[in-house]
Specification:
By secondary structure, this protein is α+β, with helices and mostly antiparallel strands. It has a single domain, classed as Alpha-Beta Plaits (2-Layer Sandwich). Helices cover 17% and strands 28% of the residues. The chain has two helices and four strands. The strands form two sheets. A two-stranded antiparallel sheet has the order 1-4. Strands 2-3 form a two-stranded antiparallel ribbon. The relative contact order is 0.38. Bound molecules: iron/sulfur cluster (2 copies).
Length: 58
């Protein structure tokens, strides 16, 4: 299981980046990059996203 970003919905607001407890999310100009090895599937990024652009998937 790992967090996945939907590029069509994402506003690149950075909200998910700041709540991730293990700093697995990086905001690049037009891309959210998630480090699969760091992600602990806590769901914080999913809960904070205002547009539902984050999902935890298998
Ligand atoms: S919180 Fe949602 S909209 Fe904001 S950067 Fe993260 S995935 Fe994108
Ligand atoms: S599910 Fe948790 S650990 Fe994984 S990217 Fe989102 S906030 Fe970070």
């Amino acid at each position: 299981m790992v967090a996945v970003n939907n590029r069509e919905k994402c506003l690149y607001c950075g909200g998910c980046v700041s709540v991730c407890p293990v700093m697995a999310i990086e905001l690049k100009e037009t891309q959210i990059v998630i480090d699969k090895d760091k992600c602990i599937n806590c769901g914080a990024c999913v809960r904070v996203c205002p547009v539902g652009a984050m999902e935890v998937k298998k």
